[in-house]
Amino acid sequence: MSYGDAMNARVRGEERRAEIIGAALEVIAERGYRGASLSAVAERVGLTQQGLLHHFPTKDALLVAVLQERDRWDAVPDPRWRTDLLVSLVEYNAMRPAIVQTFSALLGESVTEGHPARAYFTERYAGVRASMTAVLRAEYGERLPNGLTPERTAPLLVAVMDGLQYQWLLDPESIDMPGAFRDFLHLLGEPVD
Predict the structure, then answer these.
(1) Tens of pLDDT along the chain (193 residues)?
(2) What residues have CB less than 8 Å from 52, skipping those under 6 apart?
(3) What's the CA gap between 130 and 124, in Å, rounded?
(4) Distance, CA of 168 to CA of 91 (rounded, Å)
(5) Distance (Å, rounded) from C-alpha 4 to C-alpha 189?
(6) CB neighbours of 17 closer than 8 A, spacing ≥ 6?
(7) Are the beta carbons of 117 and 63 closer than 8 angstroms?
């Protein structure tokens, strides 16, 4: 096999993996991780289950790839962010219901013992809380206008963001996710626009 043929095969393999990950996101959003099957994902991309296993040897390996892909798409807040940028993140999420639904379904399932995404979400939330603490400290110092420390406020901020996503997914016509998040920031001491 020539170098060009090898490169073409590699590119086709990467494209197929991306197609499988996209299909897995859809199936998980529709059925949850436990209800999603490799055969359903394979069918969606026109493969046999054996063909899919060539790219992802286990359902858990596919789940990890889905989560890693989602993290590549999403910016996880870091200490250089400001709270007004968090509103932009909430607005961005409001434009992507399928991704938010997949994330929420996996998050909900991951609280059960033995779920393959439990460690991922545990580590992710520890990192997100630490980042939010740093964002709040950079903006407010050691105390927010409401008297709470950044450490005490960060879990509340994350809970509001995720809780609003669940409410919005259930009733998008009734929940203005970005507006409600701005209201929460007002409670922290941010001016209202």
Answers:
(1) 676 666 666 778 788 899 999 899 888 878 877 788 999 999 999 999 999 999 998 888 888 888 877 777 665 556 667 777 888 889 988 888 877 888 888 888 889 888 888 888 898 899 889 989 998 998 899 999 889 999 999 999 999 999 999 999 999 999 999 999 999 988 887 665 5
(2) 20, 38, 41, 42, 45, 62
(3) 10
(4) 12
(5) 59
(6) 55, 56, 65
(7) yes
